[in-house]
Specification:
The chain is an alpha/beta fold. It has 2 domains: about 200 residues, Quinone Oxidoreductase, Chain A, domain 1 (Alpha-Beta Complex), CATH 3.90.180.10; about 140 residues, Rossmann fold, CATH 3.40.50. It is built from 11 helices and 18 strands. The strands form 4 sheets. Strands 3, 5, 6, 9, 10, 17 and 18 form a 7-stranded mixed β-sheet that branches. It has a 6-stranded parallel β-sheet with strand order 13-12-11-14-15-16, with helices on both faces. Strands 2-1-4 form a 3-stranded antiparallel β-sheet, with no helix packed on it. It is globular and about 60 Å long. The termini are close together.
Length: about 350
């Protein structure tokens, strides 16, 4: 089969013949219809972030397709069924899984990181982890539910616990941030979207932001406090992964407010605990999504409460995946998908 393969030290994926996987007991073989192109893969390709599985490795973790074969012992899934493959799979047995915290499973595996991913014609996945996709959701669009939509959903609903009428600031309107805007707006929040790109801010308006703010060359902290009522927002989501914007989030949030960090950075930063204690500010992280959240999330997309169609701005065949990454780096795409 054809696959986009990552080799250590290479900044581009190589399209080459790769062994077609065989489903083991408890697994299904999925013919990939589409896979979303995520900024996480750029961390491996260009930013020196290592993968857990030693390369060569097939990347891609936002896959959807059709089951073509089932392994021994698989029940409830049939050949020909349309399925979503979640970005991360959990063991289901550890303490965190048993507490309903599958997204921080001690043995979690991520497609395109711990195991071969979905930039390929076929991939195997544990049958217990895939989710049936309704006929009303095109797989070319619905594949982005696997991460681009599920990660913000978990951040807004589970970690941030956003309530209707709350004032929410979203720092960064890329692939993750734009869906924090969408989910928070769908939850009834008053959303302020913040970025340095007018194009992304227009997308944020399209996905429900009540207000947008371009920070380029401006006193962001003072102006955002004023715009959000003087005391700051109820919650700030940092969806960039930079110490400067994490600090901005912490400085901006009101007394008693919350800061949710979704963006990834390996850098350290100075931190004063005074506001944390004296003003009872909460700061916490959010990682991925729990398996239990996918069925309601899929239903919300099916019923049109959350929009995948407009998220997918570009489509490429597998052998043009490099173009998808160039569009991403240029800020010209919201979400690209490859079609193996």
């Amino acid at each position: 089969m054809k696959a986009a393969v990552y080799y250590s030290g290479e900044k581009n994926l190589k399209i080459e013949d790769w062994p077609r996987p065989e489903p083991r007991a408890g697994e299904v073989l999925v013919k990939i219809t589409a896979c979303g192109v995520c900024h996480t893969d750029l961390h491996y390709l260009e930013h020196g972030v290592p993968t857990f599985k030693k390369p060569p490795l097939v990347l891609g973790h936002e896959g959807a397709g059709v089951v073509t074969e089932v392994g021994q012992g698989v029940e409830g899934i049939k050949v020909g069924q349309r399925v979503l493959i979640p970005a991360v799979i959990s063991c289901g047995r550890c303490e965190y899984c048993r507490r309903g915290r599958e997204n921080i499973c001690v043995s979690m595996e991520m497609f395109g990181n711990n195991r071969d991913g979905c930039y390929a014609e076929y991939v195997t996945a544990p049958a217990k982890d895939v989710f049936a996709m309704p006929d009303g959701i095109p797989l070319e669009e619905g594949c982005v539910i696997a991460d681009a939509l599920s990660t913000p959903y978990h951040a807004v609903r589970n970690r941030g616990q956003v309530q209707a009428g709350e004032v929410v600031v979203v720092l960064g309107c890329g692939g993750v941030g734009i869906n924090v805007v969408q989910v928070a707006a769908a939850s009834g929040a008053i959303v302020f979207a913040v970025d340095v790109s007018d194009r992304k801010l227009q997308w944020a308006k399209d996905f429900g932001a009540a207000h947008v703010y371009n920070t380029s060359g401006r006193e962001a902290l003072k102006e955002l406090r004023k715009l959000t009522g003087g005391g700051g927002p109820d919650i700030v989501f940092e969806a960039i992964g930079k110490t400067a914007t994490i600090q901005l989030a912490y400085d901006l949030v009101r007394p008693g407010g919350r800061v949710c960090v979704i963006g990834y950075t390996a850098e350290t930063m100075p931190f004063s605990p005074a506001k944390l204690m004296y003003r009872e500010v909460s700061i916490f992280g959010s990682l991925g999504c729990r398996g239990v959240d996918y069925p309601p999330l899929i239903r919300l997309v099916e019923r049109g409460k959350l929009d995948c169609k407009r998220l997918v701005t570009h489509r490429f065949p597998l052998d043009r995946i490099a173009e998808a990454f160039e569009l991403m780096k240029a800020g010209e795409s919201l979400r690209s998908v490859v079609l193996p």
